Amino acid sequence: MRAADIMTVNVVTVDPETSVQEIATLLSERGISGVPVVDKDRRLVGMISEGDLMRRVETGTELRRSWWLEMLSTNTELASEYVKTRGRRARHVMTRDVVSIAEATPLAEIADLLERHRIKRVPVVSNGVLVGIVSRANLVRALASGGSQPAGSGADRDDVIRDKLLAELKRQKWAEASPGNVIVTDGVVHLWGTILSEQERQALRVAAENIAGVRAVTDHTTRTPALPPI
């Protein structure tokens, strides 16, 4: 399996001028711990994680150095910390040297990269443009779905099944299946993500079962709670 097989494509993003307050609200409401920063052409320019928002003057958590550590710090370091703790826009607090991968990056390399850099997610780019994101959760889903298959074990057939199913779902107005939410292992289709209704769940299963070569369908989807009436 490669990054393209498990990545989330409907990526939540912000632009460099998004306010820190808006970003904090976004992370909280969406239940995510980081977000890519892209320009108007969706070119990746940075990443913001919860860690980038931990030390803020608004919450009284800004870094406080002892007088002797401050004496040892360079003006550049002190100025950078000042911007990080008081800057009001994404461009002030984002990490600029972003680790990224290509769509063809194997899962083993992605796991090594996440572990080596101690990060929870990595953006997927094509010619500098953001096309998806792979998180630790995506890797866990791949493992739960049976993991990557060695060459010659039916992986090629699984790719064909997956491509046909994704093409079918793309044609359906009711379906919003991200490629990262469809994993096929040894003819078994694993469906992930959130659904709005039981009818949608049933439709996803029917679409998968109608693809030639599918031996079984395993449903891992979760129902989005209905909003209370206003």
Order of helices and strands: HHEEHHHHEEHHEEEHEE
Shape: elongated
How many E strands? Answer: 9
Strand order of the largest sheet: 5-6-8
The main β sheet shows up as: 3 strands, mixed
Per CATH, what is the topology of the largest domain? CBS-domain
Name the CATH superfamily classification of the largest domain.
CBS-domain
- At the first level of CATH, the class of the largest domain is Alpha Beta
Task: Estimate the helix proportion, in percent.
Answer: 25-40%
Low-confidence stretches: none
Mean pLDDT: 85
Termini gap? 45 Å
State the gist of this model.
The protein has about 230 residues and is an alpha/beta fold. The chain has helices at about 5, 20-30, 65-70, 75-85, 90-95, 105-115, 135-145, 155-170, 200-210; strands at about 35-40, 45-50, 120-125, 130-135, 180-185, 190, 195, 215-220, 220-225. The protein is elongated.
Written description of the protein model:
The termini are far apart. With 230 residues, the protein is an alpha/beta fold. The relative contact order is 0.14. The radius of gyration is 21 Å and the shape is elongated. The protein has nine helices and nine strands.
